[in-house]
Amino acid sequence: MQTISRQPAPLSTDAVAVREAIARSRTGLVDREVVAEVVALSAVAGEHVLVIGAPGTAKSEAVRRTADQLGGRYFEYLLGRFTEPSEIFGPVDLRRLREGSVEFETAGMLPEAEVAFLDEVFLGSTAVLNTLLGILNERVFRRGSTLLSCPLRVCVGAANSLPDDPALAAFADRFLARVFVTPVPDARLDELLEVGWRAGSRPSDATGSLLPAVDRLSQAAEGCDLQGVRGPLAAAIRQLRQAGVPLSDRRVVRSQRLVAAAAVMDGRTAATADDLWVLPLIAPTLDAQASAREVLSDLLAQGRNGSLVYAAEEFARGRQARAARLVDSGRRLLDEVGLGSLTHDDRLRLEATLREIDAGFVLADAPPSLRDMRGLLVAAIQR
């Protein structure tokens, strides 16, 4: 069988802009790149994200930084058992109430937000969660006499753990993508300590709202050609269900939106099997995601994405995605160290990246882009 050469897809201007915004949001965070990238992917797909992890794992900070870079109207709230609906959706309009109409003032509240973050999302009352369902599903706010079309691109929910209450299952199912956050691994503790010591305010170099770019990518995703990937996608879903991964019909159908969004963020108008690395994201639990990676390992191995290099590597676990991430990391590292004299820390970072490349790839078999990056890193160290 003839081997087909695999060249990186050219990225559109909008995809590049979103990729650079994601990179800015990662500044000052360690091992939270996947959170930022999945939020951006879901914004393009028009889906919602659930971030699950223990307290103190920078879930909220990663989401806030990404929201800062995306721009637009932002709403954030920490839900509790006693959170009133008015705290989320706005108070009753007293002027209209005196006229006999129950309407709500939604300015600055969730119904008018373009990006939203709800921390401890499962602690909301039944009244809060039932109203949220309409906003998440249909982008419509209905309460009293108020009927409002919502401009929400993505809602991120965060929690320390998944709920045990079956009554919350239907609500949780509205969050298509799941990211499970664990403490920073031991290998990166030195980096965590350094970054944490000099941590300051969040990056503020966003260049205006990126939501128009997100909207154009979303429109492109809606027109993305999925014909060539529906067969492999259906086969993958069957494999997951046979392996005991619980997937509702809703999650199965809407997984196509993540596939299409991944394709357009990689600069393509037609999806391929390379974009199926997103499938573990729809598995609802941490164990189910591990099973999905194992069951689909052969299919996912070729996955990669020029804009979402960390997420693609995390869920594909393949050489293509790892090479793309190392090229991206090397490029950013070279930009940071510049052309002048290297500091001791700069040299250590360059050497660490080289060691990772050499540990993971035989140079002769490495993708050309990775071989080129290795040469640039060596030249930087030798100068």
> Helix tally?
17
Which sheet architecture does the biggest sheet show?
5 strands, parallel
Helix percentage range: 40-55%
Could you tell me the mean pLDDT?
A: 88
Class computed from helices, strands and strand pairing: alpha/beta
**How are the strands ordered across the major sheet?**
2-3-6-1-7
**Number of E-state strands:** 7
Give the DSSP E fraction (strand runs of 2 or more residues): 5-15%
What gross morphology would you assign? globular
Helix and strand run:
HHEHEHHEHEEEHEHHHHHHHHHH
Uncertain regions spanning at least 5 consecutive residues? 1-8
Query: Could you tell me the radius of gyration in angstroms?
Result: 22 Å
Separation of termini? 44 Å
Outline:
The chain has helices at 13-26, 33-45, 59-70, 85-89, 94-98, 126-138, 169-172, 189-197, 211-222, 227-242, 249-265, 286-295, 297-300, 309-316, 319-337, 344-360, 368-382, and strands at 49-53, 74-78, 115-119, 140-143, 146-149, 154-159, 177-181. The protein is an alpha/beta fold and 383 residues long. The strands form two sheets. Strands 2-3-6-1-7 form a five-stranded parallel β-sheet, with helices on one face. Strands 4-5 form a two-stranded antiparallel sheet.
